Amino acid sequence: MLGFSFDPDDPDYVLDLKDEYSATVNVFLHFTVLGVIALVSGRPFLFPSLGPSAYLIATGEQPRAEGPYHVIGGHAIAVAGGMIAYALFGNEVSAYVVFARPDPAFSMEVVYLWASGTVAMILTTTAMLVTKTNHAAACATTLIVALGLMGGLEDGVIIVVAVAILWYFHDKVISPLAHRYGFVPRDARAE
């Protein structure tokens, strides 16, 4: 095993450089594919909640949270929860605009965003627990939508399609190559 100990008090802890390299290459490939799609389409196929999803998929850190049902289903539920909350409470405001103002304190627009974000999290949490999709990274998606950072049906579809591409590319291309060449990340929790 390539590596060295980071903790002199724990002689069994060794950083496996092959493992970290594997996860890093995985994430690089995920975002390269989605970046090229964003470049060619001019649409937001890159957004913040893809980061935690890509990490979970690339590291294999939570097997239950990396399957298509959890990843794609969780983000689909999050988009729906965010869109419902924003339609009910968002009042067509955006966190970008509101918090860029000189003094947004005590404004009704902050109240709208607060209500929208809170309701989106309630809807998403409840729906993920009921459906057992349980993909925590999707909670960032629901806030992205509920806070008016991305929204509307087209953006909602783009979010779900981007997540599906992320998972599909990993499962059908990256993971088989990693297995073939021996670069399969181990579950960090198994230590």
From TrEMBL:
Keywords: Membrane, Transmembrane, Transmembrane helix. The keyword Transmembrane helix applies. It comes from the Archaea. The chain crosses the membrane at residues 27-46, 67-90, 110-131, 143-169. The keyword Iron-sulfur does not apply. Residues 17-150 form the HPP transmembrane region domain. This is HPP transmembrane region domain-containing protein.
